[in-house]
């Protein structure tokens, strides 16, 4: 029931399954390998649907999408095999948990940095503080 609720919240917020459901499944006692495979599948499905939507709407050029898709698949396969080798070599499945935590930490740092730089840019451009911190439509560009 908790994972269903987390999945609904992650889907509504556009967060992706890896950030919300991965740690929750680990907290519920799932093996790191199972949690990683499950969240990887969810991220694959949601990102594939989003990419298809962007391609069909004409926002993402097809040839760029194909190149980025191939590079992403190769990187994912290489990373999976390299990480599987490390887990087998050291016999330590907690490496998966450390990787998951590290990725979430780097994502948080990237979001905070991007937000801070955007805030700085707006303030230096002379945008009134009230407008910078005001609530805006989520659908506006």
UniProtKB/TrEMBL annotation:
Cell compartment(s), UniProt: Membrane
Membrane topology term: Multi-pass membrane protein
One term under GO cellular component: membrane
Pfam families xref list: TauE
InterPro entries found in the cross-reference section: TM_pro_TauE-like
GO biological process annotation, one example: protein ubiquitination
Tree of life domain: Eukaryota
Transmembrane segments: 6-26, 38-60, 66-83, 95-117
UniProt signal peptide: none
Keywords: Membrane, Transmembrane, Transmembrane helix
Coiled-coil region list: none
Protein name per its UniProtKB record: Uncharacterized protein
């Amino acid at each position: 029931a908790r994972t269903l609720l987390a999945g609904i919240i992650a889907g509504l917020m556009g967060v992706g399954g890896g950030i919300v459901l991965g740690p929750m499944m680990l907290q519920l006692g799932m093996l790191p390998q199972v949690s990683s495979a499950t969240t990887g599948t969810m991220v694959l499905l949601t990102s594939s649907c989003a990419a298809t939507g962007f391609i069909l709407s004409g926002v993402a050029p097809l040839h760029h999408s194909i190149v980025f898709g191939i590079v992403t698949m190769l990187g994912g396969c290489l990373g999976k095999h390299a990480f599987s080798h490390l887990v087998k070599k050291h016999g330590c499945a907690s490496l998966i948990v450390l990787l998951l935590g590290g990725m979430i930490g780097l994502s948080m740092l990237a979001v905070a940095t991007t937000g801070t730089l955007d805030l700085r840019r707006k303030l230096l451009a002379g945008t009134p503080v009230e407008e910078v911190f005001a609530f805006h439509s989520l659908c506006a560009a």
